[in-house]
Design goal:
Strand 7 and strand 8 form a beta hairpin. The strands form three sheets. This protein has a five-stranded mixed sheet with strand order 2-1-12-7-8. Strands 3, 6, 9, 10 and 11 form a five-stranded antiparallel sheet that branches. A two-stranded antiparallel sheet has the order 4-5. Helix 2 packs antiparallel against helix 5. With about 400 residues, it is of the alpha+beta class.
């Protein structure tokens, strides 16, 4: 009877006695799932940073930097990855914030110096990443509801993100290491910091949902770079369509060059070491013509394949006795920040670099740069100067 009474009492206690709350670590907010979502986010951040630096250095090259001319699709892939990984980072950041937000309000607010460093790094990291992802997303749509210059601000803030991320990883490294050494489904406690402890969604479901959300974001935007995904890229600002099969970022009307581009007395002036040659559009058409199959890729992440036809830049340089080992400055009829660009010597003498007169077998439309424009491999669209008026060998 005593054994039966003891068993009955035990079963009653299990069924009806309130059990202690589970360890904070065993729920869906476990450091194990947080670390794994953080790893995916970190990979996106690293790829986005590296490709963003490449794009910035191409446009504002430091003396030590030189981007290759071949393969000609390299910049297209690089900038496409930049926008795709930046887009994938948005849902991953939101999921990670949802997983850790109870800890953001845990007491004490400051505590030890190590805790204070952690709290500060989190505040800087979260705010700078939100800023970078929001402004980057707006840039893909060419929508700028602010007064600062996007390019330099975005570049500077990327270093703030990296610095805050490194501090955060350094502070959390013991927890991160323990989280990755332990299986995802383990119930062993890792971090003793209190959390709300709500349950109901498994860690594997959260991890799978994170992958699915990032994948959906990629598919929604990748079509502006990956042609076979265009039919499902429902959020891509550019579809790959446009005049002559290529999108247009800046129209001739917006640049204020319509009348000058269509003027009957238009000439392209080529200059080197005091020697110059003025070429009309008919003169350019009489010169040897060459075809180049080059993608045009813009910093907003869109790109499109195109066949261009025109005169090689190196032939125009040779016409005025220019040094092929010098950079070439190309000047547009447009005035302003992007009214000219500097073409490094390796690009200027490349056989695919053209003063293009035709696109897909037709004369350029005025929005694509009529009467002529620069097209070169591995150059951002903003540096593929349109409405050329002058070429100078530096």
């Amino acid at each position: 009877m005593t054994a039966r009474a003891d068993l009955a009492a035990t079963l009653y206690a299990i069924a009806f006695t309130k059990q202690p709350a589970p360890e904070a670590d065993v729920g869906p907010r476990s450091p194990r799932i947080v670390a794994r979502v953080g790893l995916m986010l970190g990979i996106c951040v690293v790829v986005c940073l590296a490709t963003g630096l490449v794009s910035h250095w191409i446009q504002h090259p430091p003396g030590w930097f030189a981007f290759p001319t071949d393969p000609p699709w390299l910049y297209r892939v690089s900038q496409g990855l930049h926008v795709i990984t930046g887009t994938a980072a948005i849902p991953l950041l939101l999921i990670k914030l949802q997983l850790v937000y109870p800890r953001l309000f845990a007491r004490p607010v400051i505590g030890t110096p190590l805790r204070a460093a952690e709290r500060l790094s989190i505040a800087v990291l979260v705010s700078s990443m939100i800023f970078q992802l929001f402004t980057g997303l707006m840039n893909t749509a060419q929508f700028y509801p602010w007064r600062f210059f996007f390019t330099t601000t975005h570049y500077a803030m990327s270093f703030v993100v990296v610095a805050a991320l490194l501090v955060h990883i350094a502070v959390k490294l013991p927890i991160i290491q323990a989280a990755f050494r332990s299986p995802l489904g383990s119930t062993e406690a890792i971090d003793n910091e209190p959390v709300t402890g709500e349950r109901g969604v498994s860690r594997r479901a959260i991890l799978g949902g994170s992958v699915a959300a990032a994948g959906l974001a990629v598919v929604a935007f990748a079509g502006q770079t990956v042609p076979f995904l265009r039919w499902v890229s429902f959020l891509a600002p550019r579809s790959g369509e446009g005049p002559q099969g290529v999108p247009v970022n800046r129209t001739a009307s917006a640049a204020g060059v319509v009348d000058m581009a269509r003027a009957a007395d238009y000439v392209l002036t080529v200059v080197a070491d005091g020697r110059s040659r003025a070429l009309t559009l008919d003169d350019l058409r009489r010169l040897p013509q060459h075809d180049s199959d080059l993608p045009i890729a813009c910093v907003e992440g869109w790109s499109a394949e195109a066949r261009w036809r025109g005169v090689r830049v190196r032939d125009l340089v040779a016409m005025v006795g220019g040094d092929p080992d010098r950079a070439v400055r190309v000047v547009s009829l447009e005035r302003g920040m992007y009214g000219e660009s500097l073409l490094p010597a390796a690009f200027a003498r490349h056989p695919s670099t053209l003063v293009a007169l035709e696109l897909h077998g037709e004369p350029l439309t005025v929005d694509h740069g009529y009467p002529c424009r620069l097209i070169a491999p591995n150059r951002p669209g903003v540096l593929q100067t349109k409405w050329l008026s002058r070429i100078e060998v530096t």
